[in-house]
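Convert to structure. Protein one:
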Amino acid sequence: MIYAAGAVLWRPVGDDGAEVAVVHRPHHQDWSLPKGKVDPGETRADAAVRELAEETGFAAVLGRHLRAVHYTVGSDDKTVDFWSARAGDGRFTPGDETDELRWLAPAEASALLTYASDREVVDDFTARPAALRTVLLVRHALAGRRTEWSGPDADRPLVEEGREQAQRLAAMLARYGVGALRAVPKTRCHQTLEPYAEAAGLTVEPAPELGDGAVERDPEAALALVGKLADGAAVTAACAQGDGIPRLVGDLAAQARAAGAPALSNRDLDDPPSRKGSFWVLSFGPDGLLAAADYHRDATF
């Protein structure tokens, strides 16, 4: 199996419009969305951001996952994962891989693209507004067993495997441009975000409203905090626990359904999973409703 990754790289135009980047590849004589193969030891999220930089010259922050495209190259099966990605600083320079870049309205980009699969990815992109607001809900990494810990449960720390999970998570949070951190006041939750906090120079702020018991007692307060985080100036990652996260994701999905705009997701939102070390990428529209919810069972995707 060959794995590759790419994105619909977009930039804002006017009050609520967007242009997307389409590149010409002289080697293939085609017009394509920027994408490329995953290098050994690289996650697909890493590869998507790297390929965007190499093929377009622009830094990018990932948003929602759009789809995986499957096809055959010779005798090999190939899977290409695509994200929505907002363009940051950069400038296109023609090269051997890509000799032309055009910023186009999505409909114009679709008309230019050579492959139907790329056009389907653009269709997925336009199914929701471009400028969605992102919150990452992170389940804490592996901690020691409660029965083997003699101290207060709030002080139960991560085990070695959990610390390794936290290190991998730090690299993933960077891909989403996380600029603020919150955690349930439990040692294991705080430690899960520590590697990224240290690397990014951030402070992990407390979020007691997202604790398991707190979500059960006052779900409205927990939902209000998630809404506040979505409205913040920076993308926030919040680390919580295994009962509260599914409840929150399920309630957010129910709100969107009740408003007649069900959220897109790669999982059943009536039974949201929350494995230790996993995370949800929650994307909110301008109306404050959940527009998309992508679940990643670990930080190796």
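Protein two, convert as well:
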Amino acid sequence: MQTLVIFALVGLLAQLVDGSLGMAYGVTSTTLMLAAGTTPAAASATVHLAEIGTTLASGAAHWRLGNVDWRVVRRIALPGAIGAFAGATFLSGLSTAAAAPLMSVVLLVLGAYVLVRFTLWPLSRARLGTPVRRRLLVPLGLAGGFLDATGGGGWGPVGTPALLAGGRIEPRKVIGSIDTSEFIVALAASAGFFVGLGGAGINPLWAGGLLIGGVVAAPVAAWIVRRVPPRVLGSAVGGLIVLTNTRSLLEAVWPEAAPGALTAVYVALAAAWAAAVAWSVRAHLAERAPEGAPAPGSPADAAGGPGRARAGAAE
């Protein structure tokens, strides 16, 4: 029972992140499972088994709300399934010693991407409504599906920012289409892991816990996305993923490292993470400020804003 509760909490946290950002359910839950000592292939297989249920529920909800562009789903889901099946069988064939650093590298790169993407670049909507080209969706699906299986997550971090950056689809339809097509990707990845692992290491109890937590968190995530700025949340989650997987990677490839050296690396990463979150908070406040109002922390703001400055000039 205790194990079920723990994994339900992991699924809850992962779905809160995914529901608020449109990505990172797999990356977050796999990172937490690896930190708990689960093997890479079993972690990814368990997460994808749970995602069959969470993505089905999410896709159905998006469909009912009209948040799905079925042309995008049709063109990206099949390449994504092919990539996911290939990635699952590839990861299943690796030894744990080889798979652990590989998955840490993939998760580290994806976490860094989420961190940088949400810290530095706001959403552009200049080309909204322009049709998405097929030659973009096919390779995007293949790459996203492969990384999703080998890294325990990656469909959202690869697909969602790529389609958002293009500015051709409404943001709500980007998230709805990616979530809906992920159901096919999760099915293909699970099939690949069952072929490669034969069910070994896959714990239905863990998958059930992740599923329960994800379903419970779905409405809460909808509330969070209305209250917590995605830019700030993305920076916070991306930094957590980077820090956690840097630790796992260093333990795998540099076991003889001096504790002082490791501490210095972690302190530097934590400082960079805090700076990124602070930057995102400041950028969000600046975006919300009325036109002509000083940015928080600026000299005009410290002096009491434009009104006080004008009053001082009049005196």
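The chain has one domain: 2-293. The radius of gyration is 21 Å.
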